[in-house]
């Protein structure tokens, strides 16, 4: 029997009932309008809060992946390690990840390839409770058909080290790179909106060294992606930028959410 990382957030960040979860994700993606995009989406930044807060923002990315489901067979997911101290990037000690919608297989060969790099280690602790990776899976399960994942918990690392891992796992048109990150945390609404617009501008300019951890919990992974995107000639585009004050919470203290797409080709939609 293969080792499986059991769902830790079902019933908290997203519904634990499979039928309700499917309906929730499908409705979120169906509400997204996509017009005139023809370039391949190679990478994206997506939020990872509870679906009631950030699900609609994440859906703007996953609706585009659903439109490309015939070609995408592997998702490399990088998210911050919230609960375990990691020096570098950590893969898990499992061969599949579970959600109420079933199990998602790990691309074991890609994990082995990543572990050949000195900044990548194996850590069960980094993955056992990590929500930044888990909450992406139900969206992928409803957006794609047959696919595998390469989940990486990102800790203390240089952006160059993260970029090296991303490029090593780059793959072809069958692979999408996802960075899971929320933006500003617990600022008043107006201050948060200003901070998140500043971060969005830096993402769109591919300026990785200017995004600090205070502006995005996944700043290390974002900065690595921006370096890799610049090297690979990707073009960024903002899909959605909101915060919890816009979706389902009070405006006294909010958390920011953004979805950004990175396209291959000369012009981004």
List the helices and strands and how they pair.
Elements: E1 4-5, H1 18-30, E2 41-46, H2 51-67, E3 74-80, E4 89-91, E5 96-99, E6 102-106, H3 108-115, E7 120-122, H4 124-128, H5 131-134, H6 136-143, E8 148-154, H7 159-168, E9 175-180, E10 185-187, H8 189-204, H9 219-232, E11 235-243, H10 244-247, E12 254-263
Helix pairs in contact: 1-2, 1-6, 2-6, 7-9
How would you describe what is shown here?
The chain has one domain: LigB-like (Protocatechuate 4,5-dioxygenase, Chain B, 3-Layer(aba) Sandwich). The mean pLDDT is about 95. The longest helix is centred in the first third of the chain and has 17 residues. Strands 1, 2, 3, 4, 5, 6, 7, 8, 9, 10, 11 and 12 form a twelve-stranded mixed β-sheet that branches. Helices cover about 35% and strands about 25% of the residues. Strand 5 and strand 6 form a beta hairpin. The chain is an alpha/beta fold and about 270 residues long. The protein is built from ten helices and twelve strands. The protein starts with a strand and ends in a 6-residue tail after the last strand. Helix 1 packs across helix 2 and helix 1 crosses helix 6.
């Amino acid at each position: 029997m293969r080792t499986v990382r059991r769902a830790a957030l079902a019933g908290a960040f997203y519904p634990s009932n499979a039928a309700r979860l499917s309906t929730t994700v499908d409705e979120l993606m169906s509400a997204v309008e996509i017009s005139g995009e023809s370039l391949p989406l190679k990478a994206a930044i997506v939020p990872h809060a509870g679906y009631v807060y950030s699900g609609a923002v994440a859906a703007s990315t996953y609706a585009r992946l659903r439109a490309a489901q015939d070609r995408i067979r592997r998702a490399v997911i990088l998210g911050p390690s919230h609960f375990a101290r990691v020096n570098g990037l950590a893969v898990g000690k499992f061969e599949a990840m579970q959600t109420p919608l079933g199990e998602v297989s790990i691309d074991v060969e890609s994990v082995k390839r990543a572990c050949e790099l000195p900044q990548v280690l194996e850590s069960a602790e980094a993955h056992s409770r990590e929500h930044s990776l888990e909450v992406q899976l139900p969206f992928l399960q409803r957006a794609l058909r047959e696919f595998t994942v390469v989940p990486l918990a990102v800790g203390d690392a240089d952006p160059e080290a993260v970029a090296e891992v991303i490029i090593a796992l780059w793959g072809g048109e069958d692979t999408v790179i996802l960075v899971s990150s929320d933006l500003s945390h617990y600022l008043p609404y107006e201050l948060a909106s200003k901070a998140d617009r500043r971060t969005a501008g830096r993402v769109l300019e591919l300026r990785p060294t200017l995004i600090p951890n205070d502006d995005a919990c996944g700043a290390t992974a974002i900065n690595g992606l921006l370096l890799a995107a610049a090297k690979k000639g990707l073009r960024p585009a903002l899909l959605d930028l909101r915060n919890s004050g816009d979706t389902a919470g009070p405006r006294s203290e909010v958390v920011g959410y953004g979805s950004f797409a990175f396209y291959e080709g000369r012009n981004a939609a």
